[in-house]
Amino acid sequence: MNPNDAALSPFGVRTNGPTIHDFPEEARAFLRDNGQMRVYQRGETVQRTRVPLTAAAWLQKGRLRTVVYQPDGSEHARGWVMTEELFGLFNILLPDCPALNHLVVDTDEAHVLHFSRDLLLDMMHRFPDARWGVSVALSRRIAQMSDFIDVTGPGLLEDKLRALLVWWSSHYSVPARDGSVELWVTQNDLANGVGASRQRVQMELKAMRDRGELDVAYRKIVLRPRFFEQLQATQG
Description:
Layout: E1 7-8, E2 14-15, H1 25-34, E3 36-41, E4 45-47, E5 55-61, E6 64-69, E7 75-81, E8 86-87, H2 89-93, E9 102-105, E10 109-116, H3 117-126, H4 129-152, H5 157-172, E11 174-175, E12 181-183, H6 187-194, H7 198-210, E13 214-217, E14 220-223, H8 225-235
Antiparallel strand pairs: 1-2, 3-10, 4-9, 5-8, 5-10, 6-7, 6-9, 11-12, 12-14, 13-14
Helix pairs in contact: 1-3, 4-5, 6-7
């Protein structure tokens, strides 16, 4: 797999979000040499919702949980920021654009390299190829936002849950030897992602498990080949 198409986390989990590999090597080295590194611990907040950002960031180690808070106070899990992924580019390039996502460390540690708007513009001035990289990175993030809107729109809970499982499996899954796919997510993550109660999601997961489409383990959902066969039959 081309590194420009996906990042590989310590868990072997892939994401199609914007990564540092969208930038040429000399631009990456420039950020490494001039950015500000900070190490966060599990549960620490890296980015707060609706707070203006003074820097974008490059996640060099760990994983960040992404949560969006709705006007009524409810929260929706949007996914994760994975190792090598970039975040905050929109917010520092657009004036008065606060963060929409709340990012919390989801691993024992997270190593985050912060870089200011001035440093990003300096990088783009020094390395013209990096301008294309920034455009690609922003396009990837827009594509992810479109995916999220599609997944969390109106519809039956079963359909929304299937769509979320498919989307997350294409972004964050770990392939298993028997053709299954492992997702290191909790039932709470799924409930937040589809905007439903944990109890209702449990009922839908039990029905899918009884049909042989998936298994539920501790902090993990295993999608069996039958899940994808059912998906193909529905789409066909």
